[in-house]
Specification:
InterPro entries: G6P_Isomerase (IPR001672), G6P_Isomerase_C (IPR023096), Phosphoglucose_isomerase_CS (IPR018189), SIS_dom_sf (IPR046348), SIS_PGI_1 (IPR035476), SIS_PGI_2 (IPR035482). By secondary structure, the protein is α/β, with parallel strands linked by helices. The chain is built from 18 helices and 15 strands. Among the domains are: about 115-290, 3-Layer(aba) Sandwich (Rossmann fold), CATH 3.40.50; about 495-525, no CATH class. The protein has helices spanning about 10-20, 25, 30-40, 60-70, 75-80, 115-135, 160-175, 190-200, 215-230, 275-285, 290-305, 315-325, 345-360, 390-395, 425-440, 465-490, 500-510, 515-525; strands spanning about 40-45, 50, 110, 115, 150, 180-185, 205-210, 240-245, 260-265, 335-340, 375-380, 400-405, 415-420, 420, 455-460. Helix 9 (about 215-230) links the parallel strand 7 and strand 8. Helix 4 (about 60-70) crosses helix 12, helix 8 packs parallel to helix 9 (about 215-230) and helix 12 crosses helix 16. The longest helix has 22 residues, at about 465-490. The structure holds 6-O-phosphono-alpha-D-glucopyranose (G6P). 6-O-phosphono-alpha-D-glucopyranose binds near residues 155, 216 and 269.
């Protein structure tokens, strides 16, 4: 049995607070720094390594973190998740996204079916459908092949699949598995749908309507927008649209779609990339085999998250260090900095994953917690970020912990040698340089040119962005966020915070406003 306790009631947390602070500038200097880089690293799946040499920890702090992990029962709580216990107590639901990519624990039967079987069945239905589209067996009304797939969805029904599509687009082209171009419509801003529709050939486009709830205003509005465009082009919308939704949603039984694929209530939106939500668009774009490889990578990383040896469990340790930074060192934010253009939208996905999961001020029992929870997450790919907000990261008044991701190889392979180095080498040189610059700083008599250092970072290093590695990376962050939620004793799997704005927007549209809401409605000409 697991017990859910607030972080500040745990004896090991009080001990952690008493542990001597690490002076990162000193720790990372000279031979000692080199030793840390060699020793403070954990192998991950698919050739990745999680290196935390430049984090503000030493053996003493690590020992305290290991004790905290034990007392907070992190492994047992993960077990409760993958064995199908109702850990999403706010919504009274199980949390089964790990099961979309493999079986970690016992079989889970819910709603009268074996859940693993259900997810696999949906994957197989999607694979079959995608193969038929690629083979020209499922076509438009004129019998011509579909060439483009357009996903309509928002939040978890957009960000993850979009980030993964962009991450693998060039890889798939290079490896001859690129089947269909994918586009995404998410915003209710009419310019989003209009711009995408202007950029495609609608007659040869297949639209994937993705909404777990089937009730999201933006998505349903964009569906109508697209249906209008199809009608105006003289096309039958139901021959151009498939749906991905939960079996209980209002969309599930509609005849408006060529086909419908299902997830269920046990897959949170932001955790749904490995379900039919990511499966449909990614299988259509790159082929089902590529999607299967992505799932394999995620499953391999999930297995590492089960390791009860904290110092061999990359997700658990990453989570613990993050909580140390937030709750003991008092740092307010975390920047995610992938040194890879392919991961252009990955920080946006992580923003939802992390901030929607752990942006909570009450614990699992609805009581206010008296310590900070989820940090502000932001990020951009390097080196672009360096020429933008790194100034604040290096010399600003706040210390922002950094999470770098770097790859030894580019995806496309086209490169150029300028001044003795390739662009890929320049990219990697920059990330190595940044880690040391942030940690060690550089003194200068001119205060303006002085770098205090002591700014902690970790790096995940891999070979290349591939279907398997992106799967492992995604699982790493999903599980890190989950472990942090356990430590803070919050429910990381609901998102009540998005409701109020939705309710008020409806009132504005119904002209049922007064006070400030009415004034703002008038200012915006609604
Ligand atoms: O997939 P849907 O039900 O349309 O939901 C789309 C998104 O909207 C909601 O407001 C939630 O904040 C997100 O967690 C969710 O991913």
């Amino acid at each position: 049995m697991v017990t859910w306790n607030n972080l500040d009631t745990l004896a090991s947390f009080q001990d952690l607070k008493k542990a001597d602070r690490v002076n990162l500038v000193e720790a990372m200097a000279g031979e000692n720094g080199a030793k840390r880089v060699k020793n403070y690293t954990i192998p991950m799946a698919e050739g990745f390594a999680f290196n935390y040499a430049a984090k503000q920890v030493d053996d003493n702090v690590l020992e305290a973190l290991v004790k905290l992990a034990k007392e907070a029962q992190l492994s047992e709580k993960f077990k409760a998740v993958y064995n199908g216990e109702v850990v999403n107590t706010g919504e009274n639901r199980r949390v089964l996204h790990h099961m979309t990519r493999g079986q970690l624990g016992q079989a889970v039967e819910a709603d009268g079916v074996d859940k693993r079987k259900f997810y696999v069945e949906q994957q197989e239905r999607i694979a079959d459908f995608a193969n038929k589209v690629h083979a020209g067996e499922i076509t438009n009304a004129a019998g011509e092949k579909f060439t483009t797939v357009v996903q309509i969805g928002i939040g978890g029904s957009d960000l993850g699949p979009r980030a993964i599509y962009l991450a693998l687009e060039n890889w798939a082209k290079k490896n001859n598995t690129f089947k269909m171009e994918a586009k995404f419509i998410s915003n209710v801003d009419p310019d989003d749908a209009a711009a995408v529709l202007n950029s495609i050939d609608v007659a040869h486009s297949l639209f994937v309507l993705v909404s777990k709830s089937g009730t999201t205003l933006e998505t349903l509005t964009n569906e109508s927008f697209v249906k209008d465009a199809l009608k105006n082009a003289g096309l039958d919308a139901s021959k151009h649209m498939i749906a991905v939704t939960s079996e209980t949603s209002p969309l599930a039984k509609s005849d408006d779609y060529l086909a419908a694929f299902f997830m269920d209530d046990y897959i949170g939106g932001r955790y749904s990339s490995s379900s039919a939500v990511g499966g449909a668009v990614l299988s259509l774009a790159f082929g089902p085999e590529v999607f299967a490889q992505f799932l394999e990578g995620a499953h391999e990383e999930d297995k590492l998250s089960m390791n009860e040896d904290v110092l061999q469990n990359p997700e658990m340790l990453d989570a613990l260090i993050g909580v140390y930074e937030r709750n003991v060192l008092g740092y307010p934010a975390t920047a995610v900095l992938p040194y890879s253009q392919a991961l252009n939208r990955f920080p946006a996905h992580l923003q939802q994953l992390d901030m929607e999961s752990n942006g909570k001020c009450v614990n699992r029992f609805g009581e206010r917690v008296s310590y900070p929870t989820g940090p502000i997450i932001f990020g951009e790919p390097g080196t672009n970020g360096q020429h933008s907000f790194y100034q604040l990261l290096h010399q600003g008044t706040d210390i922002v912990p950094l999470q770098f991701v770097g790859f030894k190889n580019s995806q496309i392979g086209t490169d150029v040698v300028i001044q003795g180095s390739t662009s890929q080498q320049k990219l990697c040189a920059n990330v190595a340089a940044q880690i040391v610059a942030f940690a060690c700083g550089k003194s200068d008599e001119n205060r303006n040119k002085n770098f205090e250092g002591g700014r902690p970072s970790s790096i995940i290093i891999g070979d290349q962005v591939t279907p398997k590695t992106i799967g492992a990376l995604l699982a790493h962050f999903e599980n890190k966020v989950m472990f942090q939620g356990f430590l803070w004793n919050i429910n990381s799997f609901d998102q009540e915070g998005v409701q109020l704005g939705k309710v008020l927007a409806k009132r504005v549209l119904a002209h049922e406003t007064d006070g400030a809401l009415k004034e703002f409605s008038d200012l915006l000409n609604i």
